[in-house]
Amino acid sequence: xxxxxxxxxxxxxxxxxxAIAQVNxxxxxxxxxxxxxFNKYQHKNPEIIEYMNFYxxxxxxxxxxxxxxxxxxxxxxxxxxxxxxxDEQIVVSDLDNFNIYLYNCKPDQEKRKYxxxxxxxxxxxxxxxxxxxxxxxxxxxx
Length: 142
Prior knowledge:
Distance between the termini: 42 Å
Strand content: 5-15%
Number of helices: 4
Oligomer: single chain
Largest sheet: 4 strands, mixed
Number of strands: 4
Radius of gyration: 20 Å
């Protein structure tokens, strides 16, 4: 009886440990990647999925249009699978659940990039790769 209880407790501990260790991809990633893409990282390199989740949610910020002129590009919607520009106007409601993979914005290695967002009076700031990596690493230190 003690042996059975011990085995059961060991199984429960292992099951809980594996459930906690599993990192699930953010649903925003599925506009660009098939769910099966993440299978290879799920157990061997979950930190890659963690970084991708962080990237899709924290590599950017939206601010009110600054009073002074900032060198910027116009934000445009893209087909996330092909990268082709779409002829669709961006509206404020598009920004409520912003997904970087649905737009023509990618980070520069060292500099922030700025995008005007249609007639919304908003600006998108894309952090540099260096900033994103630094923020990710600092987040994981806590």
